[in-house]
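Run log, item B.
One chain of 283 residues. Sequence copied directly from the ordering sheet:
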Amino acid sequence: MKLAIPNKGRLLEPTISLLTFAGIKPQYGNERSLMIPTSWENILLVSVRTEDIPSIVAAGAAELGITGRDYVVESEVEVEEMLELDYGKAKIVFAAPPSIEEKVQKGEEIRVATKYYNIASYYLSKKGIKAKIVRISGAAEVMPSLGAADAIVDVTSTGTTLKIHGLKVLDTILESSAVLIANKQWRLSEESETIGLVITMIKGVLAAKGKKLLLMNVRDEDLEKVIRNVPSMKSPAITRQKEENLWEVITVVNEENLPEVIAKAKSSGASDILVVNIEKVIY
């Protein structure tokens, strides 16, 4: 089974980290290799340009891929979005120097530089903005100051680069993040079982983020009070200890609530509280 991943850029490092936590560890022989074996014998990573991944997955050259939602929309190919990942968050925006805003409002024709030709075309047409699109492959934000365009449609995370170049965000076109995509026919593939397991393992890593496992000892007389005051995913696991009149209570809590939960557990009678990291939560 092949899984297409970015060969460079802001999505590469978090993608490798995610796959490693999922147990799919790249086995680099040569950092320039396009086909990278992994710790799973039947899974190969295909290292390609982020923007090409939707087309590669749609064509069946890779069963799965990790890319940005912006590139999926821009490609206009049919793939199945399996999971939204928790990194690579950004926006596709329509931005211009403040002086251009009035031209847009008056309905005058402007030049718009972008590498997102399809997204920009659809947006400008929908909004009724008269524009000539200037197709580029590099940094869009410098185009207005160079005189090559009046406005841009581009990706931004914080907006800092736009401000540095004197650009104002006039509209947000699309919210984007990293996504796991699959070929539309993956369920009919000979690799469907492996594909399903990969999705499950990645989903498990995402579900475990921000969660901690709590283990504590509780006396018989305090058990009901502790269970009442300690949250859990469904219900805490309870095990009778060897020592008479003692129980082990195991639960999962959100990390942000940890101090409050520990305080409540202790005041309810819990002792010997252990806090453990969780790698995966498989539902």
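Observations after the first pass:
- The longest helix spans residues 192-208.
- The longest strand covers residues 168-176.
Flagged for discussion on Thursday.
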